[in-house]
Amino acid sequence: MQTEKKSILLVEDDPSLGFVIKDNLKESGFEITWAKDGVAGFEQFYSNYFDLCILDVMLPKKDGYSLAKEIRVINPDIPIIFLTAKGSIDDKAEGYKAGGDDYLSKPFVMAELVARIDAVIKRATRFQKKRTDVVKEVYTPGSITFDYNNLELTIGNVTKTLTSKEADLLRLLCLNLNQTLEREIALKLIWGENDYFLGRSMDVFVSRLRKYLQADKSLRIDTIPKIGFSLRND
User: I want to staple 61 with a disulfide (CB 3.0 to 4.6 A). Which of 39, 90, 182, 190 is the partner?
Assistant: First the structure.
């Protein structure tokens, strides 16, 4: 019986190394999605299903450690392997602290990478959610209950049904609670592209969410000028 191929997100900015890794892992039976910077890597992870992530540490736009922390918010169980030219004990400790399951120093041979991928996936299999599982997403910042799957926002005894875009935006804000959600990332993930008019549309949705949340005095959505928004739970 043919087994389903494991899907891997590779985030590597070196075009030569990225091509070699992608080509060799495909030959080894994996499905590979290759992103060339940290922001593109996050967009791919948010939009698709993966069994494992391979992240370079030194990436443009968003470094591998920061990307791993964001990935861990969305899926705490997915295995992550870091690739880096840095090999000190402190660097490895930082990688594990960021959520890495393994740490491979450059240069390396492909056979070692494949062996580590197999080992990490095997360890994680019993914790991984299957592709067919429906993951129920419920967020509870402050006194609210936000059921993303059913588009329901409950504050006290009042439940409101959100539009799909309102729910998508509130989900991103909840995933980045007390942190900054960048406008560019939100626009690309929810609206598919980043332009001025879509940005104005997103501002309208933020205003709506502020109105919905005003019953909870511990929550607020701050605007970070020229950067994005932050859902704060005081």
Answer: 39
> Regarding beta strands 144-147 and 152-155, do their DSSP bridges make them parallel or antiparallel, or are they unpaired?
antiparallel
* Phi-psi category of residue 226: left, alpha or beta, with phi > 0 → left and psi -120 to 50 → alpha: left
Same domain, 212 and 154: yes
For residue 136, what are its two tokens? 């129920």
pTM over the 0.70 mark: no
Any domain includes 155: yes
CA distance 12 to 67: 12
Domain of residue 45: give its range. 7-124
Please give the tally of structural domains in the chain: 2
| Mean pLDDT in consecutive groups of 10 residues from the start of the chain, 234 residues | 77 95 94 94 88 93 88 81 75 71 88 92 64 68 93 93 92 90 84 78 93 93 93 92
* Whether 147 contacts 138, CB under 8 Å: yes
Q: Are residues 118 and 12 in the same domain?
A: yes
Instruction: Report how far Cα 28 is from the mean position of its chain's Cα atoms.
Output: 26
